[in-house]
Amino acid sequence: MENKANAVSRIVEIITQSARQEQPVPLPELIFHSEIPKPTYHRLVQQLDDETFLTADERGNVYPGAELKRIALNLNSNNERKAQLQAILHGLSRRVKETCGIAIPDGHDMVYHERIQTNWPLQIVLPIGMKTPIWATASGKLFLSSLPKTQRERIIGQLEMTKLAKNTHTDHDALEQELKVIRGRQVSVDNEEFIDGLVAVAIPVKSADGKFLASLFCHCPKTRKSLDQLLTYLPDLERTRDQLQSYIRELT
Asked: Domain 76-251 adopts which CATH fold?
């Protein structure tokens, strides 16, 4: 039986090995470049998959999982960093005059990791920590579009796409077609798909090597700004995204 120190070092090796890859890598290739015994490697990858540190698809390709991305962000590790993050988001919220924030993937959901709420009397309040469906939100569709085709299709096939609002996607093929457009544009929208009367725009926040970490979003009641009006603030979102990416790279 391997001792705890050895097990930990092997887990760290597997996570580091997976995270350094520029694209999804087949599990046998990772094993080939490691001195960890094959049965042990398989067992540890399965454990890391169960805990969402890694994700392995049916073809054996290994990707960083939701928990690993959450750690990579490391946004709330102390008050100083939290204050810096909020200052960046406050700047965007002041310019757009709407709620802006960051969402990160968690399984088949997106989690509101941080957000700045506006002071308008009419608000749609979605609290920090709230989980939202990946097929019916701008942030969720953005994350799905970032995935390799086989992994994306597997996840979409598992979704029970229930109708949440008047424009919610309930057809897998229609969602896949939109995801292809989002992947090309690197911009995602929610046009009353999650909540009636709510519109949203999201763009990706990426690591230095181009991997999806989180989405930067703005949302508002349609009665105050139409989706087209919200899209005019894309340059502001992009400038804020650049600030966030620089900030994250300073932490890692």
From this structure: Beta-Lactamase (3.30.450)
